[in-house]
Amino acid sequence: MSTTQQVPETAFEFYSDAVLAVAFLGTAIVAAKRMSSSRSHEGAETTVVTAFYSLILLTASLRTVWFVVPGTVWSPYYTPHAVMAFDADRPEWAMQFLEIVLLGFGSLCLFSIFILILVYWADILKKYFYPGARRSKPMVTFLVLVGVLLVIQILNATLFLFRDYSTEGMMLVNSITLSFVSVVCVCEITIFSHRFRTVLKTLGDINQVSTESQVKRIVWITVAGNLFFFTRAFLEVILAILMVLYWHRNGTVAEAFSHPLWDAYILLKHWSELIILGLMLYILQSRFTSGVGGAAGEIGGSKQGYQKVPDTDRGNGGLVAEETSLSV
């Protein structure tokens, strides 16, 4: 449909946004309470858990703000349409710019949760597969990776403000970036999960203890994470393809997004986010204590998630006495 056929948000969109706002607000409140409670404890595990709760809180809060504000405040139209920066005839450009930035930073916080998980998993696995290798601090690696994504967000906003492209261009850059990061996360989660299960089974045999429950938790995180990132990658790739095709054909993406299509994208995208945030809150709260480790040991590899391997468990060419076993 053409731009003149676009209409403000429908009643369905208004009420569905209200439900999502309440759901994200509830998630933010739970995360804030958990974060406040975790900060009352000391230790390395507390630092990791607090970091996860902080990212969940930021993600849910940013999403809540976006859904609480009516769609007509952000733009006269609910579906995307192109606006250039500092367009005197289109004063809504500023709110559309703010909306895209808000959504981008919300996605950045959400993806940072899994980036933090992967960074800690990589550090733990490096310890076991390359015991003599020098390891960087996981939090430093995490900040560098998130910093790269932040720079992309800032560069994207800057190019828009310099009128290199319209809001359509900003959306396209975000879609390509998120689809790429989603694919990388799927690959890394799958690889690390397989290696983690191998380590757990081996160390379970060494210690003569069952690690079945820990292996199941790793599989659970893997399946949940991969389903989320598969869904996100699919949505973002479809969005990017539609934008490129319609822009190349018509010079605008206005015809690419009917209300039903855009509604489906919003609902799938944000309900999948709520599900994964809820699962993360559950994992962090559950305190899986089948061994020594807790929730942070399961996803972050805290020091309390390690258990000493006695000298008698050493084998020829096997793990040395000072190696530790991961209780997930």
- Give the topology string: H per helix, E per strand: HHHHHHHHHEE
Shape: elongated
Measure the end-to-end span: 52 Å
What strand line-up does the widest sheet have? 1-2
Give the number of helices.
Answer: 9
Which residues form runs of ≥5 with pLDDT under 50? 1-5, 287-328
Q: Given the helix and strand composition, which structural class is it?
A: mainly alpha
The biggest beta sheet is recorded as: 2 strands, antiparallel
Radius of gyration: 23 Å
Query: What proportion of the residues is helical, as a percent range?
Result: over 70%
| DSSP summary, beta strand count | 2
Average pLDDT rating: 81
> Per DSSP, what share of the residues sits in E-state strands of 2 or more residues?
under 5%
Structural notes for this entry:
By secondary structure, the protein is mostly helical. Helices cover 70% and strands 2% of the residues. The chain has a two-stranded antiparallel ribbon with strand order 1-2. Helix 2 (44-68) runs antiparallel to helix 8 (259-286).
Question: Would you kindly provide a brief summary of this structure?
Answer:
By secondary structure, the chain is mainly α. It has helices at 11-38, 44-68, 71-74, 93-129, 138-161, 167-207, 212-250, 259-286, 295-299, and strands spanning 306-308, 324-326.
